[in-house]
Amino acid sequence: MEHIILSGFSDEIAPELDLQLAALQEWGVTHLELRAADGVNVSDFTPEKVREVKAKLEAAGISVSSIGSPLGKIGIQEDFAPHLDKLKRTLEIQKELGAPYVRMFSFYIPQDQNPADFREEVLDRLGRMVEEAKAWDSVLLHENEKDIYGDNASRCKELMDAFYGPHFQAVFDFANFVQVGQETLPAYELLKPYVTYVHVKDAQWGTGTVVPAGQGDGHVGEILADLIGGGWKGFLSLEPHLTDFAGLAALEQDPQKRGSALDGKAAWKLALDALHTILETIPQAKEAL
Known about the structure:
The chain is α/β, with parallel strands linked by helices.
């Protein structure tokens, strides 16, 4: 990729795809990370829904930076066969919508149990997922989500050591690391060679409260300055999480009620402005946008 491109989870603006696209056009954002449209998760799109969404995206002049799938966001002890079928369908949807990536996870670990006890099962499942992605010539992006196997830097590095390559790469999510007690600067140094895609949200140490980028303890500005200053190009994808939005309860094991008075559009614009403020301090970013 030759540029830095802003994207984001537009289902946090509003459930309705039409409202999502209108807001992105208003702000000059050319890409979205597609997680849900009209209340339907992208991995559950019917062929008819795929055609409808594709037509609306083309009419709006907006492209998909990544499929924001829920793949790998099940318990490690749950039946994997139906999930593998969901992966195949999601990869098909990815190709139909022209997205370069599929975001995914490395399975929830039972509470109060040692993640190391499930390492082999995680690696087996991920290996099968990567093989399926290879068959589709697709790229899976692993996100460091809370409570999954790869929720801290060392276990993310294990997964990269095992599978990093043309079909398995890393998303770096600042807030998720903060929320599991992982300092972001050492995490970044460890995972920097594998980072293809960045989720932009910040969080406060201790409480885990999500805040606009640069207002928390994720060292967002410092890390982006180093990453972009080193010549990195790719997608910076906003995931504001600054207010409750339709579907959040279905996406997190233990969703926090933030009580924000912001509506989805206002929260998204706040997150976008915060990111712009950071990027304006990075000379290479202004050149690459």
